[in-house]
């Protein structure tokens, strides 16, 4: 398929499995305005930089155009992760060298956290059209797979954020490295705690709750009654958060550098006075987030077959 054909397919939005071929003007309008409002809110609260806000407009547009449920997933992740990042910031500053007040996200972080979900939403638009559909892996596999992939990508990001931002400050127990189980300092890449894993599960769950509520509000009762029970989405979202956090920790423990500087703070770059803790210089935090999001997006629909 040529580039012209791909663009034409996206514009025409002729779905293969949905009987709607025309996008309503209101959806185009909402897909434009809603991301602007969210970006404005994020800029005011210093949760996102200007470059991150501009990039977020494209991410938000693709997700909102595909399905309002996808937009809710994004909104839940952005709001909840921003609050988690700011929680007990003064305490995190004590052991995180690169701690940034307010957790302002730039365009690189937006791409690495929202890029996979945007890609899956774009594929959803091409294959399924624009609109909210209940998950039905038996009779509507492709559209359900792509919907769960979006959920997986964003529940992974939120679950990992909750694990790292809340799990580190809500427990007094020392983290252990996920690969060897040896104790490591707080903030070490690949270090996990029981509370952190619970937080990742809950972080994914709230994204699943958002998706479930969006379907209840936006999909007709007749369609919902003829579909499998949708509350399982909440469980699937929770599993996405836990799975994504585990993948992130495995990558962080092996392929991402962690060291301690002379001030006793965790750093991700080697240098004078830095003592190696674990990992290597193959990946940085952004790459780990991107790969974790992609793997969770691919694996979660298969995992959902066991639940739904």
From TrEMBL:
<keyword id="KW-1133">Transmembrane helix</keyword>
<dbReference type="InterPro" id="IPR002794">
    <property type="entry name" value="DUF92_TMEM19"/>
</dbReference>
<comment type="similarity">
    <text>Belongs to the TMEM19 family.</text>
</comment>
<dbReference type="Pfam" id="PF01940">
    <property type="entry name" value="DUF92"/>
</dbReference>
<feature type="transmembrane region" description="Helical">
    <location>
        <begin position="231"/>
        <end position="251"/>
    </location>
</feature>
<feature type="transmembrane region" description="Helical">
    <location>
        <begin position="194"/>
        <end position="219"/>
    </location>
</feature>
<keyword id="KW-0812">Transmembrane</keyword>
<dbReference type="GO" id="GO:0016020">
    <property type="term" value="C:membrane"/>
</dbReference>
<feature type="transmembrane region" description="Helical">
    <location>
        <begin position="55"/>
        <end position="80"/>
    </location>
</feature>
<feature type="transmembrane region" description="Helical">
    <location>
        <begin position="26"/>
        <end position="43"/>
    </location>
</feature>
<protein>
    <recommendedName>
        <fullName>Transmembrane protein 19</fullName>
    </recommendedName>
</protein>
<keyword id="KW-0472">Membrane</keyword>
